Structure formats: structure tokens, C-alpha cells
Amino acid sequence: MWFYDKAADILGRLERREGSIKNMTIGNRYIKPEEKRKMYALICETLKYASALSTVVERSEVLTAEKIKPRQALVMCHDMLLARGGLQHQGADKRLNHRMMKHKARMVAEFEKLKIELNATCNADLVPENLRDNVSTFRYVRVNLIKTTVDAVVKAFEEERYKLARFEDIGRDGLHKAMPPKARKFMRDPDLNDVLVFPPGTDLHDHPLYVNGSVILQDKASCMPAHVAQPVEGSQALDACAAPGNKTSHMASLMHNRGRVFAFDMDRNRLDTLVKLTGNAGCKIITPECMSFLDVDPWDAQYAGVEYALLDPSCSGSGIVSRLDALVDSYIDVVRKDGKANKDNEGARLGSLADFQVSIVLHAMKFPGVKRVSYSTCSVHAEENEQVVARVLAEQDEFGLAPADHVIPTWPRRGLSGAGLTDAQAECVVRTMPEDGTNGFFVAGFVRLRAPEPRKEAPKKATTPSVTVPSEEASEKQPEEEPLIEPVQRGKRKKPVGDRPNEAKVQTEQPSKKPSTVPSSSGKAKKKGSRSKRRVHVSVTASR
Ligand SMILES: C[S@@+](CC[C@H](N)C(=O)[O-])C[C@H]1O[C@@H](n2cnc3c(N)ncnc32)[C@H](O)[C@@H]1O
């Protein structure tokens, strides 16, 4: 296939939402290695300018005059009008180029006319505002307490001439001003004690501390759920929808790699990523299980010691500030006129996601030893957030909301009131928004109010995992007995979680380093589609 045919094919697949831009370009084995970056850039730039380019193609009437397909015309129009080298000859169909070139003068004229109509002083003004480079999100760095300490990482960056700023001198409103894009500055996060904040645009992907797993590049909001779960060193925890494992590794970090974390996910490929990531982070206490969390038997004896549950189920993802997703969404809006139908479908989709989210939380609450539950989404919709919390509170009486001072107490943006929760309840949950310099996110904590009901149905026989290699750390130490936490309904305030000296307060990207996992005793991972579950204890540290 010629270069522009491949590009047109990718646009079609993006319209049908068959994959991501990166997978279809950089990760596309049918594109020559030397053409991948070029293809990625062409697709991104065509999507950015799609509105203007499609207007030029339409007004120039090239599609009626020549045998050219609309998507071919779009990508070629991009190169003709906007690329430095113009239409490319290498790897391109010369006859197609020739047909397009016959219309170059008309297209250039239509392009200039459009700029005047839209008051654009330069080409970049033709890009919709929401698609211009987003430099408002800070670079958050989570320190992996399994491998190092916050002080050691601070010292290392200071030695590299990054200037340590003090939040006390800046204040929340002064953050963007004090930390302009790409400035060589950083500070300790005021809300999460294992997180450092760098200016937007700081690229640390090649930094040795990232490559060796000492730090994890994870959005601040995504670092909150593990702090709300508050697993203590030596205890047992579960992560119900764990892959790719950022929050799993965060729990292991807070637990200083002592105890055990059961990590469930029903997607084999994603779980493989979890094993790799948590391996790179040095986690040795993670037991990955490829199965639906809803099929896990809470009364199975092997889970009797589980006290902490982190629930970060699939959601609409409406809070994620992703420039690439925004590019595709905006392109689909340009080429399709069925936005309304999509909105109707969105309502039904949110409803079924919310039902699933409620069922995950209620299932976790059936584990008899669980005393604290963290529920989170990267959604900004109340249906998946406050309303899920309200439904969970209404459907059971063993758990109440964790009080506000246990749930990232210093973070000012709390839940929406009037969206299913009372004002007092809304104070107990946390929201983040892009204007806070993070993704849109939601976190709630639940704490056990009373002992679990004895099991009504016949208990299942305890299952010994077929391929479990128990870690020494997991069996060494029993969790300490902690009193039940006073729930918010009782109004009693406890010492804030974030005030604990050794507690990490805490989303991620990953370095390409081989994991240090302890393989399953069978030595083989079950492939996708296999009905049997795999259980492996891995030695890892992890990060969303
Ligand atoms: C939002 S992602 C989790 C991200 C992860 N917590 C992290 O921070 O890296 C949701 C995950 O839930 C998994 N999932 C969906 N339904 C599930 C189920 N019934 N049981 C277990 N995992 C499920 C998906 O495969 C997906 O990996």
C-alpha cells in the first residue's frame, strides 16, 4: 500500500474507533520503521487541521474532478498545504500525486480565503482551541518507596540543578505562575507525601531514576486511591481491577513491599503489563489473578486476611485529559453529523458502567476481613461517582463513608453536593479537575461499621492456587489489629492519613525495562481466552 493510502486507511479505522493513533502508527508492523514517525506526525497534524482541510477539499471540488477518495484527499491536502516538503514522492503513488497537484493553485487559494474568513493570522489559528498543545498538566513523579526515599530523590534532583520550591511560599493559586512549563524547578506535593511536582512539559522518560523504577510518572489524581485505601506494612490488600498496575504498585510501595496484594484483572494482556510494570518497580508481594473480580469467592480462606480493597473499575474515562483522544473525537465530529445519536448512547453506556461499578464495590464489601475500601474513577460524571457512592450506601449497612480527614484531607476540591450525597457526605469524597493541573478524577473511601454477617450460603472449599509461588514477605508478618474506623456518620475526626510520616500519598507511564517477576511454578502464562486462572507471586513495585 502506498504511503497516503495507508494514512487514509488509518483515518478510517480511527473513525470506527478500532484502535489508538499510536498503535496504528508507531505500533503498526505494516509500516516501515523509518516511516512510522512520519505517519504518526501526518495523522496527528491532519486530525488537528481536519476542519480547515475538509473545508478546502470540499470547496476546491477536487473530489468531483478526480478519482481521489475523501480521506486520501485530506491527508494529501495536509502535506500540500502544511508540510515543509509538500506532497511526498518517496513511498507515494505518483499518479495520485499528479491528480492532486493539478488542483494545488485552487486549494492554496481556498486555504488563504478560509484564513481570512476565520480571522486566522497564522496556520496555527486554524486549530480548534481545545486541540492546541496542552501545557497545563504538571508532571507528577511518585517516589517508589520500595527502592528509595523521597529525601534521596529530592537530593538527586537538586544535584542536577533542579531548584526546590516550597509550596508554603507559592500557595495553590500560585502554582502555574511559580512552575511555568519546562522550568528547572520542582516541589514536594502538598497533599501526597510520596509525590513530587514538576512544571508542565518536564520530560523525565529517559531519567535514570525513572528507568530503574525508583520513581514512577503517575498523575497526582491517580496517586490518591492508594492513600485512601491506606494499606499498612505487612497487611493484605486486594486490587479488584488492577491492570496495568499503577495503583497496585503504589499499594506495594506504601506497604514497603511487606504483606500481600491480590491483583485481579480479566484482561490477560493488561495483566501481563501489570506483571512487567510491577516487576520493574521491584514489587515482591503481588499475586496477579486473571479473572473477573465478580467471580472471586470472598469467603475463600486464602482471602481471610485481606483488610484493604482498592477498586478502580472500568469507567467512561471522561476525566482523562488526552490530546490524542481529543484529536480523534474532534475529527469524528468533523466527518460525521451524528453527534446527537452518540450522546443518546452515552447515557445508556454510563448507566451500565454505573451498575457494574456498584456491583464491584458491593462485592468487595463481602470480603469478611475487609475494613477499608477505596473506590475511584477517572470520570467526571456524577453517575459514576457520587451516585455510585449513594447507591452503595443505600444497598448495604456494614460500611459507611470514611470521614473527610481520612480522605486526602488537605485537597480542597470535594464531591458534588446535590448529586446523590448530602453536603456532609460530599465533603468526604474527592474530585480533581483539569484546572487543578491533573486529570478529572474521583475518589471515595468506605470504612467498616460493623462485623460482617455470617455467610448464608455453603462455603466453597478453599482453593489452593494452581501456580502460586508464595513470597516470603507475605507469610512472614501478620497484619496488626486496628480498631474499626469511626465512619463519617458518627462525625468523629481522626488523624489525617496524609499526616502519617511514612505514608505515600499518591497515575503512571512506564520505562522499558525487564521485570524482576518471580515466574509461576508452571513457568507459563495462560493466554487470553483461557478459562483457567493463573496466579503468580511477583516481586515488584507498581503505578495509572
Ligand atoms: C481503569 S482500569 C484499571 C487501572 C488500574 N487500576 C491502574 O491504576 O493501573 C480498569 C480495569 O478493570 C478491568 N476489568 C473490567 N472488568 C473487570 C472485572 N469484572 N474483573 C476484574 N477486572 C475487570 C479492565 O480489564 C481494566 O484493566
Characterization of this structure:
The protein folds into 3 domains: 3-129; 139-217, Alpha-Beta Plaits, CATH 3.30.70; 223-499, 3-Layer(aba) Sandwich (Rossmann fold). The strands form 2 sheets. Strands 6, 7, 8, 9, 10, 11, 12 and 13 form an 8-stranded mixed beta sheet that branches. Strands 2-3-4-1-5 form a 5-stranded mixed beta sheet. With 544 residues, the protein is of the alpha/beta class. The chain is built from 20 helices and 13 strands. The chain is elongated. The longest helix is centred in the middle third of the chain and has 26 residues, at 339-364. Helix 1 (3-15) crosses helix 6, helix 4 (50-60) crosses helix 8 and helix 17 (339-364) runs parallel beside helix 18. The model is unreliable at 461-544 (pLDDT under 50). It binds S-adenosylmethionine. The site of S-adenosylmethionine has 20 residues, from helix 14 and strand 7.
Overview in brief:
By secondary structure, the protein is an alpha/beta fold.
Task: Itemize the secondary structure elements and their pairings.
Elements (H helix, E strand, L loop, with lengths): L2 H13 L5 H4 L8 H16 L1 H11 L1 H4 L4 H13 L11 H8 L2 H14 L21 E5 L6 H10 L3 E3 L1 H4 L4 H4 L6 E4 L6 E4 L9 H4 L3 E3 L6 H6 L6 E4 L6 H9 L5 E6 L2 H13 L5 E5 L15 E6 L11 H13 L3 H26 L7 E6 L8 H10 L3 E3 L21 H5 L2 E3 L8 E8 L23 H5 L68
Parallel strand pairs: 2-3, 6-7, 6-9, 7-8, 9-10
Antiparallel strand pairs: 1-4, 1-5, 3-4, 10-13, 11-13, 12-13
Helix pairs in contact: 1-6, 3-6, 4-6, 4-8, 17-18
The structure holds S-adenosylmethionine (SAM).
